[in-house]
């Protein structure tokens, strides 16, 4: 394939697509420069339109647990494609995928498939309101649950990077029904319930927040959310879009255990890189969804056969060996990053939740969004660009988890480790 100059492509892209991208954080807004326009990806590597190859630590923002273009996943998608791209009718494969989800996450007694994590959380909120007859929802500052109106208050990720309070275009009424509480602050949440408990339909939380960087729940925090919501007749929605099937077969719930949410949302790994996400939960609640119940939800491409095939193949291949490898690589990388930054006297904190981790450029602990924001973003930008120059693509924001895959072998890890000292020195200046 002919090589293309990324700078001119970016210039053209910005003429025809706002910011030149289909999702904001891809534009490198907080680190500057020209994004890698990807022409192909395989295993732990992505290749840009200029022919440069990078070790990829974005992994499509989570889905590529097995690495890019795993031959068996690609074959499953190709086989499905040869049978038809979309039917708008139920399929046996959807039923099989629902069974696979239930086997791994017992809290998901029934499962409804959608195309994006945004739809999954949006539907969960509607279902919670329909089930309780209450309007208000509680979310935590820095948790990102997609870009639906109600959930765009004080979100992390792209919104955090841009420093937007929420978004223009979200009505006051939509924002008024969303109560935002500091993460890991149980006292504040108890105060909110004491004041408005009978108005609250649900608390939604990332199972282990990873969109303000990784900020794990304090021990017992999620279980306390469960107890508090139950006491006040509100639902608990555990958002496992990012953690589900990534930190372990049973997601964060499988690692932590000890409590059962009412509803769970999935995305990313469940679709193996194709547009697929899901909402699962207590059967009596799920039965409130159309066509059985009064809460409407639908989608032309929901349960798309190609996406379902990719998801099924991915879950089938994600065995104990895959999770062991990703866990081991994660520990190895966390240690190496920390050593390199320490050697260059760069203040930093590494937070992890299972194999998910991120590096904050500040010395003090990070337990919530305010603490995440109080890091040196310019140090991250220098670190990021040095890594990129050396052929390692990190997530282009200081507020993102770093993603590994089971395809990150010794060669790929070697390239990352080799790049770290130089990047740490760049961050120091
Ligand atoms: N929930 C969480 C925890 C996420 O990390 C994301 C996306 O990053 C979403 C929901 C939204 O998913 P999607 O981008 O597929 O709409």
From TrEMBL:
Catalytic activity, as annotated: (S)-4-amino-5-oxopentanoate = 5-aminolevulinate
Catalytic activity, EC: 5.4.3.8
TM segment ranges: none
GO CC terms in record: cytoplasm
Signal sequence annotation: none
Residues with the N6-(pyridoxal phosphate)lysine modification: 268
Keywords associated with the record: Cytoplasm, Isomerase, Porphyrin biosynthesis, Pyridoxal phosphate
GO annotation terms (biological process): protoporphyrinogen IX biosynthetic process
Record flagged with keyword Cytoplasm: yes
Superkingdom in the source lineage: Bacteria
Cofactor section: pyridoxal 5'-phosphate
Entry GO MF terms: glutamate-1-semialdehyde 2,1-aminomutase activity; pyridoxal phosphate binding; transaminase activity
CDD domains: OAT_like
Pfam family, one: Aminotran_3
Subcellular location: Cytoplasm
Location (main, coarse): cytoplasm
Pathway(s) the chain acts in: Porphyrin-containing compound metabolism; protoporphyrin-IX biosynthesis; 5-aminolevulinate from L-glutamyl-tRNA(Glu): step 2/2
Keyword Cytoplasm: yes
Gene3D superfamilies, per the entry: Aspartate Aminotransferase, domain 1 (3.90.1150.10), Type I PLP-dependent aspartate aminotransferase-like (Major domain) (3.40.640.10)
Family: Belongs to the class-III pyridoxal-phosphate-dependent aminotransferase family. HemL subfamily.
Subunit record text: Homodimer.
Name the record gives this protein: Glutamate-1-semialdehyde 2,1-aminomutase
């Amino acid at each position: 394939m002919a090589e293309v100059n990324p700078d001119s492509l970016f210039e053209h892209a910005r003429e025809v697509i706002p910011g030149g991208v289909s999702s904001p954080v891809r534009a490198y807004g907080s680190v500057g420069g020209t994004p890698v326009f990807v022409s192909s990806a395989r295993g732990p590597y992505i290749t840009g339109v200029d022919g440069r190859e990078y070790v990829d630590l974005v992994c499509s923002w989570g889905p590529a647990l097995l690495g890019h273009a795993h031959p068996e996943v690609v074959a499953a998608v190709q086989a499905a494609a040869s049978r038809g791209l979309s039917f708008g009718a139920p399929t046996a494969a959807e039923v099989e995928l629902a069974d696979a989800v239930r086997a791994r996450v017992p809290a998901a007694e029934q499962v409804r498939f959608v195309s994006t994590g945004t739809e999954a959380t949006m539907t969960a909120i509607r279902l919670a309101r329909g089930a309780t007859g209450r309007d208000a929802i509680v979310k935590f500052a820095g948790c990102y649950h997609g870009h639906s109106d109600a959930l765009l208050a004080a979100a992390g990720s792209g919104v955090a990077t841009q420093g937007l309070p929420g978004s223009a275009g979200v009505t006051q009424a939509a924002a008024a029904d969303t109560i935002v509480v500091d993460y890991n602050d149980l006292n504040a949440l108890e105060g909110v319930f004491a004041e408005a408990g009978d108005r609250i339909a649900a608390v939604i939380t990332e199972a282990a927040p990873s969109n303000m960087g990784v900020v794990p729940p304090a021990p017992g925090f999620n279980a306390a959310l469960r107890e508090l919501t139950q006491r006040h007749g509100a639902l608990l929605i555990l958002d496992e879009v990012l953690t589900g099937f990534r930190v372990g077969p049973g997601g964060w719930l499988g690692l932590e255990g000890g409590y059962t949410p009412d509803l769970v949302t999935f995305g990313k790994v469940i679709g193996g890189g194709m547009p697929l996400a899901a909402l699962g939960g207590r059967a009596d609640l799920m039965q409130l969804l159309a066509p059985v119940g009064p809460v409407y939800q639908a989608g032309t491409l929901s349960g798309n056969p190609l996406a379902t095939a990719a998801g099924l193949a991915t879950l089938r291949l994600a065995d104990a060996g895959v999770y062991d490898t990703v866990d081991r690589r994660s520990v190895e990388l966390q240690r190496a990053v920390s050593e390199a930054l320490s050697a260059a006297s760069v203040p930093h904190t590494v937070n992890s939740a299972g194999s998910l981790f991120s590096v904050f450029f500040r010395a003090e602990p990070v337990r919530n969004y305010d603490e995440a924001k109080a890091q040196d973003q310019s140090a991250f930008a220098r670190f990021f660009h040095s890594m990129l120059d050396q052929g390692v693509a990190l997530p282009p924001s200081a507020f993102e988890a770093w993603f590994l895959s089971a395809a990150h072998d010794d060669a790929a890890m070697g390239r990352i480790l080799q790049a770290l000292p130089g990047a740490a020195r760049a961050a120091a200046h």
